[in-house]
């Protein structure tokens, strides 16, 4: 064989080997599983509705201490006054990055309302704080329960 014929044979053999490799590689790709279908678009996460102010008020009125105070007010006044929860300020108060409703338990009389205690109720319903206006501190509900000696009202007639 001449050099030229040998080079042509080598070139054809190399091209044939390359074509065979490409064909095998193409077959391997065809054997691979198809990619999973594209995921459906994820809907934005909708946060649960905030704990409403009305729910916060009802939660406070259901506290045993406030229920006892309400009963005491009605008994002492012959039903002329009642215990109630009112909003102190419509703007939420922020404490450590959490927003709270500002509410107070009052003795509700025909001529006025006398505040007995101030509360902060988390807008997500997770926590109740007591705003101790005498010491200008916030107490957890559990701390406040330990500090009250009796469930008598602060004010007298």
Kindly describe this structure.
This protein is 38% helix and 28% strand. The radius of gyration is 38 Å and the shape is elongated. It is α+β, with helices and mostly antiparallel strands and 157 residues long. A hairpin with a 5-residue loop joins strand 3 and strand 4. The mean pLDDT is 79. Strands 1-2-3-4-5 form a five-stranded antiparallel sheet. The chain has helices at residues 3-31, 53-61, 64-77, 141-147; strands at 82-95, 98-108, 113-122, 128-132, 137-140. The protein has four helices and five strands; from the N terminus they run H-H-H-E-E-E-E-E-H.
Tell me the layout of helices and strands.
Layout: H1 3-31, H2 53-61, H3 64-77, E1 82-95, E2 98-108, E3 113-122, E4 128-132, E5 137-140, H4 141-147
Antiparallel strand pairs: 1-2, 2-3, 3-4, 4-5
Which features would summarize this protein structure in a list?
4 helices; 28% strand
Query: What distance lies between the first and last C-alpha atoms, to the nearest angstrom?
Result: 127 Å
Structural class: alpha+beta
Task: Specify Rg, calculated over alpha carbons.
Answer: 38 Å
Basic shape? elongated
Quaternary arrangement of the chains shown?
A: single chain
Strand order of the largest sheet: 1-2-3-4-5
Strand tally: 5
Average of the residue pLDDT scores: 79
Number of helices: 4
Can you write the helix and strand succession as a string?
Answer: HHHEEEEEH
The main pleated sheet reads as:
5 strands, antiparallel
Low-confidence stretches: none
